[in-house]
Every structure is written in structure tokens, then in C-alpha cells.
Amino acid sequence: MGLLSSLRPHRRGALSGGGGGGQWQWSFLDAVWAVFLLAVVIFLALVFTPRRGEPLSASSSALAGATVPPCAASEVDLLPCEDPRRSSRLSREMNYYRERHCPARGEAPVCLVPPPRGYRVPVPWPESLHKIWHDNMPYGKIAERKGHQGWMKQEGSYFIFPGGGTMFPDGAEQYIEKLAQYVPLKSGLLRTGLDMGCGVASFGGFLLKENILTLSFAPRDSHKSQIQFALERGIPAFLLMLGTRRLPFPAQSFDFVHCSRCLIPFMAYNGSYLIEVDRLLRPGGYLIISGPPVQWKKQEKEWAELQEMALAFCYKLITVDGNTAIWKKPTEASCLPNQNGFNIDLCSTDDDPDQAWYFKLKKCVSKVSLADEIAVGSILKWPDRLSKPSARASLMDNGANLFELDTQKWVKRVSFYKKSLGVKLGTAKIRNVMDMNAYLGGLAAAAVSDPVWVMNVVPAQKPLTLGVIYDRGLIGVYHDWCEPFSTYPRTYDLIHADRINSLIRDPISGKSRCDLFDVMLEMDRILRPEGIAVIRDSPDVIDKAAQVAQSIRWTVQVHDSEPESGGTEKILVATKTFWKLPLT
């Protein structure tokens, strides 16, 4: 018998002699049960009806028809895995406390992150490279502290970005021209770059006109929202700290690595950070360091050690121009082992240099297969490299054929999205795009002629195909979608999820590692108001996704897939509504 039936008032077996035949009669015990039931109902109402700003518990998110409440106004920049309230209690050794540290499952707030008061639809690209709305991130600390160096300044209702930086206060364009004397930045030879400690990413932003795609990163720090400013400008950027772990990128992927006063202590911890840079840098690629310790007062020892370690790696010093040093990595396999003063040797044969998701830094240099074939100068120039399978793709079973089939499939799908589903790729509505399940980067390749950039995410529990994506001249990261992504709220215009259920399912057991609701709630956090989500999967998964979408205030349309897909999939196209907290 259920709880409600057990609490019903009992009917007497005999009628009262005083009349009232057929009437209910209550005993003292019945009254006690009724009071108890009322107390239970009131208690449940208090527990499961959140006040504004109070997140639902994880279990209550499953309530049928429930609308997820807004987070408190203080959570407009919620970063679940980079929360100083958690990280401040952790070790400072090797900046461990500034790396990703996510809440345990069930501890993350279940609420919708609100936009700040005064938020507007962002300034469209390419105008956004130079100015953004002040109220979309009303933080003036960088403008106050770095305005004299040309980082940014406030003018009326805008933040203006003159294009400067600490080491290039006269502007990124002049700085890029200086570097181009030594580095082939204008020939198509270089396509992918990594800018470490990027500030507001003006260096990467101004390299875009040279068809160079630079992924800029910086940690959450005292300046407040460097990466958020970069993404608001429409520049590829990622929240990240070089600390105790490998960075979440594949080996030998970046055509150049750049540090402009990034303040990374390359020689600390027996050179662990320079070893990590070497892992990421493509053979024949360029390492550019501007600022400390290069010919820097009181850092002569660090500068001497940096040169000595680069020499141990057989890097060629191209130039030292003032406080800027440029090296070229050899195109052949590592020259280690050799006699060096740092006791650095090659890693063992069981080391996989592409393993980079929560993977501890190693104090050895990874061996690399195909070094000659994927080196700068051997790999095709841009844009030819986009459409041709690289030598790294050949390491996959039937890799070249899979590459061609995937490329053709996504050309058809992206065309279908534009023509039949009304997805506004190619317009000013969409600039920052994320592919949550990128595989070989087919979607990004198909959209390359549109004014967008794509963050290609390869799930960490799936085959590590991200190196092939970088060989194409595209960028991306490893990630596990059962955790929040390392970006600020409201940073992407379009998020695409192919086979979304595979992102939460264990590839071996087939069991779910987290909930579809959790993944879509995270999509909502990083999607801009009026942004678009496109989700592909089986009809039953799409039905579930549509229910979740309604609970997080998205407007939803479900479509049949392309004719060539055989009707085995449905496509959900959802728009995040532009809602605001009520005034208090």
C-alpha cells in the first residue's frame, strides 16, 4: 500500500447510532495522521521549491516538468572547475591550486547562470575584435592597470582594444611585423599557434588576417576575465594553467608556441615546463619568448639556463632581438640522449605523448613517430593541409578512407543545416563555435569559409584523434563532458553535439557515467543568450534532450536528418532564450 493510501481516514465498519448513515467518522488517531500528512507536504514543498538564487539539488532535476531555477546574481561568471572558493584550500606547489579542480558529482549547483545586468547581444565579428559592450563584462581592472600598454580602455558604453600588450605597447600588428622578419608568418607554412599567458589575446586576434589560427590561454587570475574578454572579442581562447599536468593538447601539434611576458618559469622543476612546450611543438616549429628571462635584468642565470636547455634539445637559436628570443625546433626526431647538464633523457617506449587528460608532467622527452612527415615544411601548407589526410591519419585503421568519408559527410551536413534547418552559419549571428564530439574535425573543415572559428573537442574517453585535427590546420582540446568545460559563461554562439549520448556512456561497459541533463546544463552555461545548440542522436535520445531543453528555457525544434542518413537520427535545433533576473 502506498503512502497516500495508508494515510486515508478509516471508514467505520458500523454506522453511528446517532444518524449520519454513510458519513465518514474520525477518531483521534485519524486526526493525528492527517496532521502528520500535512506536515510532510509542507516539508516537501519547502525542500523542492527553491527561492531565486538557490540551486536545485541534483536529484530534484529529474522532477518531471520542473523548470531549472536561476543561479544567484553573484554567479554570473560561474566557473565550476576554477572556483577560488575551492582552489584556495589546495597546494600552491607548481600552481596546482590554479589548475582544474571540479566539484564532485552531485555537488555542482543545478541552476541557470544569469547574464549580468545590462547584458546585450555581443558586438558582431569583425567589429568585436576592436570593441565590445562594457556591460557584458563590467570589469575595469585590466583597463585601469594595463591601459597605458594598449591592452584595453573604456570609452562610453564600450571597452576598446587598441591591440597592444605588455611587450608590444605600440600594437600587435607592429610586433607581428617584427617577428615576421625571422618567422614565416605570412607564407602559409605556419597555421596553428599556441599563445601562453595571452592577456586579452590581441596577438592571436591580429594573426587571424594572416590565416594563422592561434589558441590563446591564460588562467583565472587577479586581472579578472582575460579569457572572457578574448572570447567576447571572437578570438580563440581557453582557460588553462600550466602547473602539474600536461596541457590538454596532443603532441607535436602547434606550428609555433609564443610567450609574451607569460611569466612561466620554464627552467623551474628541472625544466618541466620547457619539456612540455617541446612535447606540444611540431618538429620544425618555432618557439618565441618575449620578456623575462630573455636578456632581463636580474634574471641572467635563468636566461643562461634557458639557452643551455634549448641547446640540449638541439633547437637552433634564430635571433635574440632585445628581449625577444626565437628558436627553431629540429625537423628530425629528438637528438636525445646526449650529454646535457639537466639529466634529461627520452621517455620509455610505453609513454604515449598524446595522453594529456589529467596526465602528470613528465621529466623526460617523448619519442615521436612520423616526426619527418608531420614537420613544418613537410606537412602541406595552408589551406591544402585542410583537405588532405596527414601521415598521422594513416596510423588509424583505414585512416585515409575514413578521413575522406568524414570530410564529405560533413560538407553535406553543414549545407543541410544552413539550407533546411535555418542554422545561421555564415552570418554575423555566429562567430564562436564548439564541436563537442569533433572526431576528425569534419564540421570545422566544412565551415572554414564562414566567418567562424571552431573549438574541436575530442572526448578524452574516445580515440585520441585530435592530432589529425591539428594536422589539418584546425585547433581543439581534449575534454570529458561529465565535467564542466574550462571557459566562462556566455562564450559560444553555436554548440554542436553529434551523438550526444556517446559523450556520457562508458565505451567499454556501455553504462552512463553521468546524466544527459548534466551535459545540457553545462551547454547552457557556456552558450550565449540567443545562441544555438544542434544535437544529433537517435529519436529516443532526442526526445529526452527536448524535455531537458524545455526545462532550461530553450525553444526547441526537432527535425528529420538528411535523406542520406537513412532516418536513423533526429536533429534537435534549440535556441537559448534571452532571459534576465527580475530587478530587486
UniProtKB/TrEMBL annotation:
Membrane topology annotation: Single-pass membrane protein; Single-pass type II membrane protein
SUPFAM superfamilies with a match to the protein in the record: S-adenosyl-L-methionine-dependent methyltransferases
Gene Ontology process terms (BP): cell wall biogenesis; cell wall pectin metabolic process; methylation
GO MF annotations, alphabetized: S-adenosylmethionine-dependent methyltransferase activity
Cellular component terms per the entry's GO annotation: endosome; Golgi membrane; trans-Golgi network
Top enzyme category: transferase
Keywords (A to Z) from UniProt: Glycoprotein, Membrane, Methyltransferase, Signal-anchor, Transferase, Transmembrane, Transmembrane helix
Cited Pfam families: Methyltransf_29
Main location group: membrane
Compartments, as annotated in UniProt: Endomembrane system; Membrane
The enzyme's E.C. designation: 2.1.1.-
Transmembrane segments: 31-49
Family per similarity comment: Belongs to the methyltransferase superfamily.
Name of the molecule in the record: Methyltransferase
Organism the protein comes from: Oryza rufipogon (Brownbeard rice)
